[in-house]
Amino acid sequence: MSNPHKNSIKQLNKVAKLLEPSYKDKKRFKAAIKMLQTPQNFFETELEVRMDNGKTNKFKAYRSQHNNARGPFKGGIRFHQNVSADEVKALSTWMTWKCAVTGIPYGGGKGGVIVNPRELSEGELQRLSRAYAAFLSDKIGPWVDIPAPDVNTNGQIMAWMVDELENTVSLDRRASENLAATFTGKPIMIGGSQGRDEATGLGGVFILEKLAKELGYDRKRDITIAIQGFGNVGYWFAHHADQLGYKVVAVSGSKGGIYVEDGLDPEQTMECKKKKGGLETCLCVDGKCNVSNGKSITNEELLELDVDILVPSALENVINKDNAGKIKAKAIIEMANGPITPEADEILKKNKVLVIPDVLANAGGVTVSYFEWAQNLQGYYWTRDEVVAKLQPLMDKAFDSMWEMLKKHKTTGRMATYMNAVKSVIDAMMLRGRV
Ligand code: NAD
User: Fold this and answer.
1) Does domain 198-361 have CATH number 3.40.50.720?
2) DSSP 3-state assignment of 184?
3) Is 255 helix (H, G, I), strand (E, B) or coil?
4) Which of 110, 164, 342, 401 has the greatest number of beta carbons closer than 10 A?
5) CA–centroid distance, residue 337 to ligand 1 (Å)
């Protein structure tokens, strides 16, 4: 198994080689790269949680604060049995780049607890969430470190954590800070933002719009799209792409997917999936679902379809050395985190498949988290349309910067995105005199 933290360092060193010529002071540049290889702060503990049977169980927990040169640390909390210190460190490094990509004023952080939350009752899950928030209470805050949901955590868990933080800290802190702004991804009732649910998928569609123009397509309906995954991100990507006139021809879930040559109807497909518990028979066109509209396909088949744009929106490492050579799409928009392995990346580059990397494509989510924080701090809330109107220019600008770098250095979308992000973090470190 490859070590994610070592991979993130390797990736950083690769970017550094391309960036170094543009820095006059090589010593300061090298010092900055060295600092970025290790999180600024790393905390770990064992959380003690009372279980329903009266016994106390211990759960290993981490928080990594990678870099805050551009603003407070920002990044989700993961509850999963495979969480490790190295995974949390790598994810916090990637958050530093992701926040820099859209220019939001944050650095990178990430947290995790080694636990299978499906084995916990709701009461146990609440006690675990509260124990984690109490452990972090003197390490996080609206101007210090702002966690959010990640794998297996959600708005409910953020609500428990806000409550615990408020109960744990001193009256002075409660009186001077809006502690709810410490967490984003909260339910609307306690300060969440309108538009957060759809933000990641919608942000990806803004990227699709820019990409379609650069690739020189005339008519949106001529652009065929296959989406792996039909959860939060996949569904909203399909919905907005369809609304704008693109032709979504395939979507899939864990048990398989569907292909509809004339373009499927995302709303009806979702309705049908909810009713039937699976996608296989949900071949819906213009509001009508009929098996004669298309065919069922496997997840492997979906990835290898002859479409214009492939949108992996489910799991990591689904495009790897075994199938990368069979990808026929002209471009891939990485909506999931890490769907393409480094070996596959090399194969795609050779085959001239353009890849828009995850830190750019799915940055709509963290950008609307930033909007949630900004609304909490000003105590004034925006409508869904205001949120969308503020999201688009940030996604557009991030795409334009990537495209400019890609052309200038004749490099890949991933490298161009990382170059911009790492450069802006290093410049902030230099301005602050950290190196
Ligand atoms: P989700 O749980 O809502 O949806 C995941 C989807 O993947 C489901 O439709 C599920 O059926 C499908 N799936 C599971 N196993 C599959 C398989 N073997 N093959 C094909 N499909 C499979 O999750 P989500 O929030 O939509 O997140 C999807 C990806 O996007 C993850 O990588 C996540 O880290 C990333 N992401 C999400 C957000 C966000 O705001 N939700 C933000 C940034 C990145």
Assistant:
1) yes
2) coil
3) coil
4) 110
5) 9
CB 148 within 8 A of CB 158: yes
Question: 74, 89, 98, 110: which is the annotated catalytic residue?
Answer: 110
Q: Which of 233, 360, 369 to mutate to test the pocket of ligand 1 (most atoms within 8 A of CB)?
A: 233
The span from the CA of 255 to the CA of 277, in Å, is: 10
Q: How far is the CA of 231 from the centre of ligand 1 (A)?
A: 6
**Are residues 250 and 260 in contact, defined by beta-carbon separation less than 8 angstroms?**
yes
Find all residues with CB under 8 Å of 356, minimum gap 6, and list them.
Answer: 207, 211, 331, 332, 333, 334, 399, 402, 413
Residue 58 β-bridge partners? 48
Maximal C-alpha separation, the chain: 66
Say yes or no: CB of residue 233 within 6 Å of ligand 1: yes
Looking at 51-132, which runs of residues are DSSP E strands? 56-67, 73-80, 107-114
CATH class of 40-183: alpha beta
CA of 166 to the centre of ligand 1 (A): 32
Integer Cα distance of 263 and 261 in angstroms: 6
Q: Which residue has the tokens 């006059």?
A: 24
Q: pLDDT tens digit string along 284-311?
A: 999 999 999 999 999 999 999 999 999 9
Question: Would you call 110 a catalytic residue per the annotation?
Answer: yes
CA distance 329 to 307: 5
Domain with CATH 3.40.50.10860 in the chain: 40-183
Instruction: Give me ligand 1 centre to Cα 236, in Å.
Output: 11
- Spatial strand order of the sheet with 145-149 comes to 41-50, 56-67, 107-114, 73-80, 145-149
pLDDT tens sequence across 20-72: 999 999 999 999 999 999 999 999 999 999 999 999 999 999 999 999 999 99
Q: Give nearest CA residue, ligand 1 atom 13.
A: 254
Q: Which residues of 212-233 are buried (b: 16+ CB within 10 A; e: fewer)?
A: beeeebeeeeebbbbbbbbeeb
- Assessment of whether the complete model's pTM goes beyond 0.90: yes
Token duo for residue 175 = 């009186």
In angstroms, rounded to a whole number, what is the distance separating the alpha carbons of residues 116 and 46? 15
CB-count exposure of residue 2 (10 Å: 0-12, 13-18, 19+) = exposed
**From-to residues of CATH 3.40.50.720 in the chain:** 198-361
